[in-house]
Amino acid sequence: MSWVKDGPVATFTLDRPEARNALDLATIEQLLHALEAHAADPTLRVVVLTGAGSRAFCAGADLAGLAASPELRRHAGRQYAALLACIHQYPRPVIARVNGACMAGGWGLLLACDLAIAVETATFQLPEVHVGMWPMMVGAFLVPIVGRRVALDLALTARKIDAGEARALGLVNRVVTDLDAGSTQLVRELLRVSPTALRIGRAAWSEAAGIAVPAALPVLAERLGDLMESEDAAEGFRAFLEKRAPHWQDR
């Protein structure tokens, strides 16, 4: 795993192209620790998660690397779950930049992110049943997005889908020919808006997820009040009235 920070944007790369960026225990823990280490960085605005090379975003678990013992596989599974939770709860927006095949556990990384952009040649598959396994943690994200029946179709049949179908199912937000240009554009769009609004809004929607509407609305109203008391909201109102671009303070 490698990472680079360019101003307000940090890009974390699964850097095992020879293994199609498969997840061994070391890679899982390196990514988890790197994300945690940067979570409190006040200059960080957007995180991008991608894979090295053009063949694969992530081929899932490195079965050869995890074959040593059941204890190792159980520990790796727990660390993988912790990684997905970290991405899902991250204080800054996280974009999955899907540069190639996304398979098995790679779906967890993809779906834990806030947004996903994929090159048009990317493919997506949950092949776990072919090796006597099941996409356990992936289901926590997949079922709410596509529904139980569609999720079961993808998991039970292990059929491969293309980027167009992934977009239609809501697995990715955008499919592009030029991934570099498309990713840059998406990052720029996020950098234009208030980081405070993104932080409070994303957290509020997560807090209200799964709550019945009558109970969720008061929670969201309180979070809206929190946001409206922020300096960024005051600046946004002023900028609107003065017909100028806002200058966000992330406060």
Write the layout of secondary structure elements.
Layout: E1 2-6, E2 9-14, H1 25-38, E3 46-51, E4 56-58, H2 70-88, E5 94-98, E6 101-103, H3 106-112, E7 115-119, E8 123-125, H4 138-146, H5 148-157, E9 161-162, H6 163-169, E10 174-176, H7 179-191, H8 195-208, H9 213-228, H10 231-242
Parallel strand pairs: 2-3, 3-5, 4-6, 5-7, 6-8, 7-10
Antiparallel strand pairs: 1-2, 8-9
Helix pairs in contact: 1-2, 3-4, 4-5, 8-9
Could you give a quick summary of the protein structure above?
The chain has 251 residues and is α/β, with parallel strands linked by helices. Helix content is 48%, strand content 16%.
Can you offer a commentary on this structure?
With 251 residues, the chain is of the alpha/beta class. The chain starts with a strand and ends in a 9-residue tail after the last helix. Helix content is 48%, strand content 16%. Strand 2, helix 1 (25-38) and strand 3 (46-51) form a beta-alpha-beta unit. It has a six-stranded mixed sheet, with helices on both faces. Strands 4-6-8-9 form a four-stranded mixed sheet. The radius of gyration is 19 Å and the shape is globular. It has two domains: 2-191, 2-enoyl-CoA Hydratase, Chain A, domain 1; 195-242. It is built from ten helices and ten strands. Helix 4 packs across helix 5 (148-157). The mean pLDDT is 95.
